[in-house]
Specification:
This protein is an alpha+beta fold. The chain is built from 2 helices and 3 strands; from the N terminus they run αββαβ. It has a domain of 46 residues. It has a 3-stranded antiparallel β-sheet with strand order 2-1-3.
Length: 103
Amino acid sequence: MSTDQKTEFTPADWTEEDTRKAAAIWDEYQKTHDLSDRKGQIAGIDPDSGEVWLGEWFTDIVKERREKGLFNPLWFERIGYPTALRKRRFRPTRPSERIKTNR
């Protein structure tokens, strides 16, 4: 698939082979690069080109790639953590957002 054209991707476009390739690229990258000062940052791995993109946020990587005309999907890792995303519960910060209970 061409990376020089803007395309919408769906999860069906990503295959298990893409995941395996991205994981292998990431494993090799970590062995050959010192990432100790980048803990918490995001790595975007392109399984087609083998490129690894680093940034503070997912959006930094996507924006930089779009500016270069690259739109193919990436595999994301958070450096130094087992997952790139963490599920969080909504915690209201203002009293008006809090759910009122009879307690």
